[in-house]
């Protein structure tokens, strides 16, 4: 069926007018225009169109290399493997290099976690490499350009003095997944007893690890394997969104939703939440619930499951004492989980209190989903996920007692994220040293700041959740005047303190090779093979045998302390910026949030009911007060949220660390209870002011047309099949019999060679936006800033349209990637006065930039609103070395030029050249991967040759779920969408139809 009641914002639902896609020049004064003035304006506009709007190419001097490296072939890229660490999560990467500089990051197809896919954070790693705001020189006190050797001598002297006074030196590091880094830190602490290491994350998520330690004897967080689950229940968990292993979860989750025929089965996702998470937008069934009801709902669910599965008495009695909630929903869900058995799992958000984690663990243990080979497999533990709170509390005690004489901050920023007490205690330490990429808030408070090498400039290794190991290798010489990695600096400092330390080790690479040789015995050929493949899977994984301490678990099942009075607020990691360490990346700042579609700000999101009760609207400024913390935020009215809840995000409000992050959002870390993610009671005060927000949710609207086709699994399995709404227009069957060809007086073009096309599966797409950043990195797409986004001038070639279906309180959500459809009868082509947009013999809608004079007729005539116009020269103020970021295979556009998706024509041409070199006339299926397709962790995008009947894209195009967006316009797009299928029970079908 068709989602006929689609809406993107509350204004749409209430019948408001949509915003213009792009705003042009300011309107003329509303006075009478004389004929003379009109002719003046007409001639001036013609001159501007011919002169100012054309593509002007700057002059450059080309200097050839006198002697090129032997391993480089001009015009051919080189590919190197490395690994990406998102805190203590890791997966493999392949980096494309041109003439010695990295230009594109992709996932490593050989890595068992991502299998070639990548995330927005991995893609953004390339921007941070060339970020002009990276610090490149050592600062020593007031000396801004000190030699590294002098700074290290000063630090060594200060540490020796600290040790002589009987005081401690703390080495504060961030969460990571490198076993060799752990070995280095352990050796440093062994050699220098006065040195203590502590992991100091931006926020704590210890609850699950602390509970597992007491109940299972496993002091770590178990990462669920969603590929083994058939029924997944999330209680404000967000495995498809802000989870560190979201990429792996998306791959596993999407694998269970592949529908190749009507007989295929799907996994089922039920989301129980008060907010709207990315996981909730992808749920088959979503239960909107206040956080105070979570414990009662889970307790009722456990009691229902205990009727059919054995549950220890102490646990059952503790659950029975809690007041139950949503009993009928709990009964229905218990039946589904019992039917799934060990393939059923309940996941709880890291920000929720321990009693909820305890109830979920009891349910999972009763279902049998905990154990070897199960959904919750103890072999899949998050590296270094042991509880961090004891180490931080010991640091606090030593600071209060005055026992700390020096602190080394290594890639951490507590002066931005820590609570007020810890910041004050750290300020009292006489010697503070910062090792980091940027001059951030902590570097500004430090006596010495040493810039460190980027992950793409340094050696290392990383342990993934499945036990596989990967090597991080440098791909370019350090851009910070040759200063090495943080590990190299620590080794140099150790040798200054004790020349006998680390014998035979000059650099961290030596230490890395030495440890790998001792532990795994790799020969030189094996080491080189490891560097080529990028992953080492022959690693014996040490797992502890699980025990089950029922009394300990029963003791954790108690009232959670979440009440219904007043407002509850929670600050969670930003989807794009996460904890704020990536705040200086404009790619991520301008990436629309998958749920709110906001850019360049964080907000106080609340339900329409809460906003109405408080007399608030979106963009109203309010103050949130929690204890002594006061945060000022703009309101955002978010459909689907529970009343009485306010949700905001971390990572904003930075004051140091670059030009991009300044004056962007507000710092909300003060809302965390002692740095632990969790709900807090807040009071809200309206300020009577407005704050403009930049959202893309009302740009390029297609609402009111049958854009998204949706159905449910029972309807899809029925003999009649899904009743999709088909557009009515006169036509005749196409040769393949699947689609109709509209009547036309123009004979259809016969594609004799390749005919490129794409299929996008809406059931698999989660809206993660990896395709958006991958496309931006591949095609030199600029960022435009908040003000330009507000005017509808964002430049992304692919956008993720988020549609609601149903009521404002209980909406369903569909994510739809929208890009140039490369129409065979493209309406943009026949209106261009200079033939800047034309159709290729292979079915591509091509742009010739040096012909474009910027009339924007094509933009106005595009029914999909996917063309982008360069209103300004967005690359004019590029600061070095940011020009190294540009992909040399793609033209950098200038002001006055239209641009759009090209189906990565540069990749198509490269594949055709390789085929020609091998004596082939055609490109094989799978040899061309567009940037969006290659990055997509869900495998929702398939590209290929429609003229090859054996190609995956040609076969998927024949799916009974396939349809064209706006097919009735007779534009004949080359992109086929596969309808969204929800695995909703039969009784919800009628509700979906009438929503």
Can you characterise this structure?
The chain is 27% helix and 19% strand. A seven-stranded mixed sheet has the order 6-5-15-14-13-7-8, sandwiched between helices. Strands 20-22-21-24-18-23 form a six-stranded mixed sheet. α8 (278-281) links the parallel β10 and β11 (285-288). The model is unreliable at 47-66 (pLDDT under 50). With 995 residues, the chain is α/β, with parallel strands linked by helices. Among the domains are: 223-367, 3-Layer(aba) Sandwich (Dimethylsulfoxide Reductase, domain 2); 567-695, Barwin-like endoglucanases; 699-994, Alpha-Beta Plaits (2-Layer Sandwich). It is built from 30 helices and 39 strands. α10 (313-320) packs parallel to α20.
Element layout with pairings:
Layout: E1 6-7, H1 10-13, H2 35-51, E2 78-86, E3 89-98, E4 101-107, H3 120-129, E5 138-140, E6 143-146, H4 148-164, E7 168-173, H5 179-191, E8 195-199, H6 207-215, E9 231-235, H7 246-255, E10 268-273, H8 278-281, E11 285-288, H9 294-306, H10 313-320, H11 327-340, E12 344-348, H12 354-367, H13 389-400, E13 404-410, H14 414-417, H15 420-427, E14 431-436, H16 441-444, E15 448-451, E16 460-463, E17 469-472, H17 486-497, H18 508-520, H19 524-533, H20 550-556, E18 567-572, H21 586-589, E19 598-599, E20 604-606, H22 608-614, E21 620-626, E22 629-637, E23 645-649, E24 680-690, E25 694-695, E26 710-712, H23 713-717, E27 731-733, E28 740-742, E29 756-761, H24 770-778, H25 786-790, E30 799-806, E31 811-818, E32 837-839, E33 845-847, H26 857-861, E34 868-869, E35 898-899, H27 905-917, H28 931-935, E36 941-945, H29 952-956, E37 962-963, E38 975-978, E39 980-982, H30 989-994
Parallel strand pairs: 7-8, 7-13, 9-10, 9-12, 10-11, 13-14, 14-15, 18-23, 20-22, 26-39, 29-38
Antiparallel strand pairs: 1-30, 2-3, 3-4, 5-6, 5-15, 16-17, 18-24, 19-25, 21-22, 21-24, 27-28, 29-36, 30-31, 32-33, 34-35, 37-38
């Amino acid at each position: 069926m068709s989602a006929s009641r689609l809406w993107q914002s509350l204004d749409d639902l209430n019948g408001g007018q949509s915003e213009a896609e792009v705003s042009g020049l300011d309107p003329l004064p509303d006075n009478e225009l004389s004929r003379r003035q009109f002719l003046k304006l007409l001639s001036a506009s013609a001159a501007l169109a011919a002169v100012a709007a054309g593509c002007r190419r700057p002059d450059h001097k080309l200097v050839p290399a006198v002697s090129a490296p032997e391993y480089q072939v001009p015009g051919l890229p080189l590919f190197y493997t490395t690994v990406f660490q998102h805190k203590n999560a890791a997966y493999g990467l392949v980096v494309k290099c041109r003439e010695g500089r990295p230009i594109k990051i992709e996932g490593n197809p050989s890595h068992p976690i991502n299998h070639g896919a990548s995330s927005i954070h991995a893609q953004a790693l390339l921007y941070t490499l060339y970020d002009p705001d990276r610090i490149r020189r050592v600062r020593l006190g007031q000396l801004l350009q000190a030699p590294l050797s002098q700074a290290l001598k000063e630090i060594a002297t200060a540490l020796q003095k600290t040790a002589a006074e009987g005081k401690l030196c703390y080495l504060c590091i961030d969460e990571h997944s490198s076993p060799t880094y752990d070995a280095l830190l352990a050796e440093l602490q062994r050699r220098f007893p006065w040195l203590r290491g502590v992991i100091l994350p931006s926020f704590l998520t210890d609850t699950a690890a602390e509970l597992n330690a007491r109940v299972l004897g496993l002091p770590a967080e178990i990462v669920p394997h969603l590929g083994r689950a058939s029924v997944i229940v999330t209680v404000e968990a967000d495995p498809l969104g802000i989870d560190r292993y979201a990429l792996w979860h998306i791959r596993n989750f999407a694998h269970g939703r592949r529908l190749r025929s009507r007989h295929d089965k799907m996994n089922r996702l039920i989301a129980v939440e008060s907010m709207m998470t990315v996981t909730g937008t992808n749920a088959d069934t979503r239960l909107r619930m206040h956080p105070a009801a979570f414990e009662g709902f889970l307790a009722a669910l456990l009691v229902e499951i205990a009727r059919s599965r054995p549950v220890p008495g102490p646990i059952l009695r503790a659950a029975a004492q809690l007041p139950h909630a949503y009993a009928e929903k709990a009964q229905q869900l218990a039946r589904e989980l019992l039917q799934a058995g060990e393939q059923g799992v309940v996941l709880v958000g890291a920000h929720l209190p321990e009693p909820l984690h305890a109830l979920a663990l009891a349910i999972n243990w009763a279902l049998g989903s905990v154990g070897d080979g199960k959904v919750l497999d103890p072999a899949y533990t998050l590296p270094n996920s042991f509880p961090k709170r004891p180490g931080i509390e010991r640091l606090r005690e030593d600071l209060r007692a005055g026992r700390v004489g020096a602190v080394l901050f290594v890639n951490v920023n507590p002066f931005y994220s820590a609570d007020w007490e810890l910041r004050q205690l750290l300020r009292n330490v006489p010697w503070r040293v910062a090792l980091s990429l940027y001059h951030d808030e902590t570097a500004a408070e430090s006596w010495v700041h040493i810039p460190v090498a980027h992950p793409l400039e340094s050696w290392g290794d990383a342990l993934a959740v499945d036990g596989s190991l990967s090597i991080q290798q440098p791909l370019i010489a350090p851009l910070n005047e040759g200063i090495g990695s943080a590990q190299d600096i620590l080794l140099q400092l150790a040798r200054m303190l004790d020349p006998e330390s680390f014998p035979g080790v000059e650099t961290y690479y030596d230490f890395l090779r030495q440890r790998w040789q001792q532990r795994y015995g790799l020969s030189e050929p094996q080491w080189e093979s490891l560097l080529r493949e990028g992953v080492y899977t022959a690693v014996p994984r040490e797992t502890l045998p699980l025990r089950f301490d029922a009394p300990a678990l029963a003791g954790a099942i108690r009232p959670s302390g979440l009440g219904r009075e007043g407002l509850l607020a929670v600050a969670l990691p930003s989807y794009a910026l996460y904890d704020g360490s990536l705040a200086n990346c404009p790619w991520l700042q301008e990436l629309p949030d998958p749920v709110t579609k906001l850019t360049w700000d964080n907000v106080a999101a609340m339900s329409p009911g809460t906003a109405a009760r408080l007399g608030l609207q979106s963009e109203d400024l309010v103050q949130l007060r929690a204890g002594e913390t006061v945060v000022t935020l703009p309101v955002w009215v978010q459909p689907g949220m529970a009343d009485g809840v306010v949700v905001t995000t971390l990572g904003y409000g930075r004051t140091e660390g670059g030009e991009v992050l300044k004056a962007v959002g507000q710092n909300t870390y003060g809302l965390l209870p002692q740095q632990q993610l969790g709900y807090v009671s807040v009071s809200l005060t309206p300020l009577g002011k407005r704050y403009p927000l930049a959202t893309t949710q009302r740009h390029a609207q297609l609402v009111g047309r049958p854009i998204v086709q949706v159905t449910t699994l029972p309807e899809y399995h029925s003999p009649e099949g899904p009743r999709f709404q088909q557009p009515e227009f006169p036509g005749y069957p196409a040769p393949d019999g699947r689609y109709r060809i509209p009547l036309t007086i123009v004979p259809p073009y016969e594609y004799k060679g390749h005919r490129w096309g794409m299929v996008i599966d809406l059931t698999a797409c989660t809206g993660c936006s990896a395709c958006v950043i991958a496309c931006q990195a591949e095609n030199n797409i600029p960022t435009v800033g908040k003000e330009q986004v507000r005017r509808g001038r964002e430049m992304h070639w692919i956008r993720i349209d988020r549609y609601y279906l149903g009521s404002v309180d209980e909406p369903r959500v569909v994510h739809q990637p929208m890009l140039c459809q490369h129409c065979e009868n493209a309406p943009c082509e026949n209106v261009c006065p200079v033939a800047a947009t034309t159709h290729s013999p292979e079915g591509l809608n091509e742009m010739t930039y040096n012909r474009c004079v910027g009339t924007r007729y094509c933009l106005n005539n595009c029914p999909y609103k996917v063309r982008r116009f360069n209103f300004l020269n967005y690359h004019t103020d590029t600061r070095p070395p940011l020009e190294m970021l540009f992909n040399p295979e793609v033209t950098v556009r200038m002001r006055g030029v239209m641009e759009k998706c090209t189906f990565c024509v540069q990749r198509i041409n490269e594949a055709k050249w390789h085929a020609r070199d091998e004596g082939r006339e055609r490109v094989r299926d799978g040899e061309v991967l567009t940037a969006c397709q290659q990055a997509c962790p869900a495998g929702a995008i398939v590209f290929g040759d429609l003229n090859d009947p054996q190609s995956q894209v040609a076969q998927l195009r024949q799916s009974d779920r396939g349809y064209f967006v706006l097919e009735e316009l007779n534009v004949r797009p080359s992109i086929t969408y596969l309808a969204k299928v929800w695995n909703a029970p039969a009784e919800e079908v009628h509700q979906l139809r009438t929503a």
